[in-house]
Amino acid sequence: MIKIGETTIDFNEPVILGMAVVSVLLLLLIIAVLRMSGKSGRAAEPLMRQMSLLGETVRGLNDGQHQLFGGLKTVSDAQANAQTKMIQVIETRLSAVQAGMTESLHGNSVKTTRSLTELQERLATIDRAQTNIEKLSGDVLSLQDILSNKQTRGAFGEIQLNDIVIKALPADAYTFQATLSNGKRADCLIHLPNPPGPIVIDSKFPLEAYEAIRGAKTPAHIAEANRLMRAAVRFHIKAISERYIIEGETADGALMFLPSEAVYAELHANFGDVVREGFSARVWIVSPTTCMATLNTMRAVLKDARMQEQAGAIRRELGALYKDVERLGDRVGSLDRHFGQAAKDIEDIKISATKAGNRARKLDNFDFAEVEKVEESAAEVVRLAPKVD
User: Hey, which bits of the chain come out as E strands?
Assistant: First the structure.
């Protein structure tokens, strides 16, 4: 490759290679002519014609080279323009892609931020729930501690019983920790009228026997747990029957309150004989639900008894009300008579007013000239002597 000024000649191109070969041949031909210059002029004329043709051919090749250069330049310019346009198109598409990616990244960033915020809120909720669970776990452990001790377990049953009674009955219908004539203190005494009379509710919680039943696996353990449950409930039934059923002071029965629906269900499902023994001893076993229903029935009994106590006062009030109604009727009748007399007086006044109006109209139409003539003629009339008796 040779560069002459701004023109670059590449010998690898076919055209340039052909021109080089022609030039070499032309040079060899000139040398041969110079060697044969000594020959005759006639012999040189054909050679001169060949040289002229060869020169025209070289000029034609030169013109073709210039045309080829121009075409190559046009192709190069077109290629440059196409490359420029392609670069512009690529830049436009890259800008659009970049804008789309920016928008997409922004949207994804917003969504990611929102998701992280929601996740943080959920984590906060989970943390609060975890705190509540830990607190509840502590409360459950505290409840287990309470139920594991007989004294605190009894207090737990009494508190639950008190809450049910307070919700079901008026304040003057019960007494907590009432002391009876035998010196025994009842958890709650309901002041029912005679019959049946005041009735005692005592709270009992045979938790150990129930837990033994729930934890028994072998037939021997189950039988032993059932024996413990029967013994515990029978002991409570006997204690309530002996302590809280006093003839002439309390009702002929009492209630044993079980503060657990599960224990109550277990007792009625698998220990019906013990429940029937309670019926025989006039001790009725109730759970929180059945105790509330029983207390509502007692409330109706109290209301009916109080209505009966007030029956005399109600009758007296009804008699007084009847007299007031009779007196009101008499006064209404008197007022009606007064209204009738007033209506008659008004009617008489209207009649008198009508007559007075008629007389006024007659006087208004009266002719006074005729009155004067009547008076003159009356003067000429001979008056008769008065009649002598």
Answer: 2-4, 7-9, 174-179, 185-190, 199-203, 254-257, 283-286
Phi first, then psi, for residue 47 (nearest 5°) are -65, -40
φ, ψ of residue 11 to 5 degrees: the values are -75, -5
Among 58, 61, 73, which Cα is nearest to 6's?
Answer: 73
Short-list 140, 145, 162, 150, CA closest to 204: 150
Q: Dihedrals φ, ψ of 62, to 5°?
A: -65, -45
pLDDT band of residue 237 (cuts 50, 70, 90) is very high
- From CA 94, how far away is CA 40, in angstroms rounded? 79
Give the C-alpha separation, 179 to 188, whole Å. 10
H-state helical runs in the chain = 14-35, 41-148, 150-168, 207-215, 219-244, 261-270, 272-280, 288-309, 311-364, 368-380
40 confidence band (pLDDT: 50, 70, 90): very low
257 CB neighbour count, 10 Å cutoff: 26
81 in helix, strand or coil? helix
Query: Which residue ranges make up each domain of the chain?
Result: 152-309
Pairwise CA distance, residues 112 & 118, whole Å: 10
Residue 282 CB neighbour total at 10 angstroms: 14
10 Å CB burial of residue 60 (0-12, 13-18, 19+) is exposed
Provide the residue count of the chain: 389
Q: Is the overall model pTM greater than 0.85, yes or no? A: no
